[in-house]
Design a protein that fits this description.
Elements lengths: L1 E7 L2 E6 L9 E10 L2 H7 L10 E2 L3 E6 L8 E4 L2 E2 L5 H4 L10 E2 L12 E5 L3 E3 L6 H4 L2 H17 L8 E5 L3 H12 L4 E5 L3 H10 L3 E3 L12 E6 L4 H10 E9 L11 H6 L3 E4 L5 H13 L8 E5 L3 H9 L7 E5 L1
Parallel strand pairs: 11-12, 11-14, 12-13, 14-15, 15-16, 17-18
Antiparallel strand pairs: 1-2, 1-4, 3-5, 3-9, 3-18, 5-6, 6-10, 7-8
Length: 331
């Protein structure tokens, strides 16, 4: 099969790779669309020791099942493989399973390829009419949907009465803004440094898009909810300044592990800081429904290109040449 293979820092090569060999209770999915995630970029830069070269990256995928009870069906892949038997799995929090694995991280190859193997329990059918590139957005949108659900449980006031700031206008950040809006939030600001992406954000919903590097762009002590979809020291510092007393910061991104949290303010102003990781299969089902029903808009904020041109897509993302919130590769 053809695959896009990470071979070293800033090196990604389109080449022949062995077809996947499914394990017990696994199926092979023929990939129709797969998105480039921020974690793929992190690995591409050589900043993720969990993803050593050579490795097929990619985990945001949609495709057709080649065999099994869903043979011929279009499905989305939940890339997070859990044990299924621990307390967290049985309690509905498989995303916290201590034995979890994820495709695009050894020992599992990723979905920047013509085919990928995955446990049959990790796939969910989607309507045949759904655009495969839109279906491939299920994974990042589910990440945002899960985070908003975590935030709602922590907030003291309803979303409709809460001023929200989303840091990052990529797929997860924009998805978080769209999910917030679909659940009644009316005052949503998205902080994004890329001017093209700011235009994409404002074209996607009734959001204010700001450049957080501009002086006084972000009000201090002004937001009851902040969703950090970047996760860097600088964005944690921004969230700490911008959150109002008694507010909630939800941390999704994993850009770096540097400092940034103002622990004194969090303590003295009773701010809730919550880490949130991926999603559950229930989140996946809810996301498929939201996409199918049009609850998150027309999803026109993607850019499509062929898998064979993946190296150019990575280079464009590195240098900010794409205004899209997500680039989706098509094998």
């Amino acid at each position: 099969m053809k695959a896009l293979v990470y071979t070293g820092p800033r090196q990604i090569v389109y080449r022949d790779e062995p077809d996947p060999e499914p394990g017990p209770e696994e199926v092979v999915v023929k990939i129709e669309a797969v998105g480039i995630c921020g974690s793929d970029m992190h690995a591409y830069f050589g900043h993720d020791e969990r993803r050593p070269a050579p490795l097929i990256l990619g985990h945001e995928a949609c495709g057709q099942v080649l065999r099994g009870r869903h043979e011929g069906s279009r499905v989305v892949i939940n890339p997070l493989v859990s044990c299924g038997s621990c307390d967290d799995c049985l309690g509905g929090r498989a995303n916290l399973c201590r034995e979890r694995e994820i495709i695009s991280m050894p020992p599992r190859q990723g979905a920047f390829a013509e085919f990928v193997s995955i446990p049959e329990t990790n796939i969910l059918p989607v309507p045949k009419s759904m655009d495969p590139a839109h279906a491939a957005l299920t994974e990042p949108i589910a990440t945002a949907l899960h985070a908003v659900g975590v935030a709602e449980r922590a907030l003291w006031r309803p979303l409709g009465e809460t001023r929200a700031l989303v840091i990052g206008g990529g797929a997860v950040g924009l998805s978080a803004a769209l999910v917030l809006a679909s659940r009644g939030a009316r005052d949503i600001t998205v902080a994004e440094t890329n001017p093209g992406r700011r235009q994409t954000v404002t074209a996607s919903g009734s959001f204010q898009a700001i450049d957080p590097t501009s002086a006084d762009a972000v009000e201090e002590n002004a937001y009851g909810l902040i969703i950090d979809a970047v996760g860097g020291g600088v964005t944690r510092a921004l969230a700490s300044r911008a959150v109002k007393p008694g507010g909630v910061i939800v941390h999704i991104g994993l850009m770096d592990t540097k400092e940034g949290v103002d622990i004194r303010k969090i303590t003295l102003q009773e701010v809730t800081f919550i880490g949130t990781y991926t999603y559950t299969m229930v989140d996946f089902r809810a996301t498929i429904s939201a996409i199918s029903e049009g609850a998150l808009g027309d999803l026109s904020w993607i850019e499509r290109c062929s898998l064979s041109a993946g190296a150019e897509a990575f280079d464009n993302l590195e240098h900010g040449r794409s205004a899209a919130s997500k680039i989706v590769l098509l094998p």
